[in-house]
């Protein structure tokens, strides 16, 4: 029997991101900017940016997963790395689709910590093993998650990508 998976559809993502934004707003946190962890965090950042009326969105590229349940030993920041001057004394909301091990969120949160006024994390899913407990979580699960943006294989397989497995 195949392993049961968490299924996130585009429609459910719309509801999830709205509920996540409501959680951030209800907490009184008003971020100056949203820092998304590419690639999955881009979708979350865009949705939260609209819902929280935050136009200042930044991207941090981090490579960790190389396949299903396959990852590097440690997450690696890929260029271009955000300029800390852009983050200085700002309230930053870091977004990702899932906090699995927590290693990626920790890397980004720690990168921000010495420069920003406040850094908090928002994720659609958080797994029990995550070493970082995000302040804002839509759902907790221990299952593998099928995200609507990554469940289908690429239309074109590109070789030579950074840290291509």
Please explain how this structure is put together.
This is Phosphoribosyltransferase domain-containing protein. InterPro entries: PRTase-like, PRTase_dom. Keywords: Glycosyltransferase, Transferase. The protein has a single domain (8-143), classed as Rossmann fold. The chain has helices at residues 10-26, 40-51, 84-87, 103-113, and strands spanning 6-7, 33-38, 57-67, 70-78, 91-99, 118-126, 136-140, 145-146. The two termini are 28 Å apart. The chain contains 4 helices and 8 strands; from the N terminus they run E-H-E-H-E-E-H-E-H-E-E-E. With 165 residues, it is α/β, with parallel strands linked by helices. Helix 1 packs across helix 2. A 6-stranded mixed beta sheet has the order 4-3-2-5-6-7, with helices on both faces. Strands 1-8 form a two-stranded parallel ribbon. It is globular, with a radius of gyration of 15 Å. Helix 2 links the parallel strand 2 (33-38) and strand 3.
What would you say about this model in short?
The protein has 165 residues and is α/β, with parallel strands linked by helices.
**DSSP helix count?**
4
CATH fold topology? Rossmann fold
Give the domain tally.
1
Main beta sheet: 6 strands, mixed
Tell me the β content: 25-35%
CATH A-level architecture? 3-Layer(aba) Sandwich
CATH class: Alpha Beta
């Amino acid at each position: 029997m195949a392993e049961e998976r968490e299924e996130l559809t585009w429609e459910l993502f719309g509801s999830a991101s709205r509920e996540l934004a409501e959680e951030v707003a209800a907490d009184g946190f008003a971020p100056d900017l949203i820092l998304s962890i590419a690639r999955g965090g881009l979708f979350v950042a865009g949705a939260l940016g609209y819902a929280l009326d935050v136009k200042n969105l930044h991207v941090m590229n981090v490579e960790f997963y190389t396949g299903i349940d396959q990852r590097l030993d440690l997450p690696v920041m890929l260029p271009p790395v955000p300029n800390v001057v852009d983050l200085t004394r700002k309230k930053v909301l870091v977004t990702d689709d899932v906090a699995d091990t927590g290693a990626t969120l920790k890397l980004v949160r720690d990168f921000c910590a010495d420069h920003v006024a406040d850094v908090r994390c928002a994720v659609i899913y958080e797994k029990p093993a995550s070493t970082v407990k995000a302040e804002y979580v839509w759902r907790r699960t221990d299952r593998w998650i099928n995200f609507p943006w990554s469940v289908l294989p690429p239309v074109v397989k590109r070789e030579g990508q950074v840290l291509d497995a």
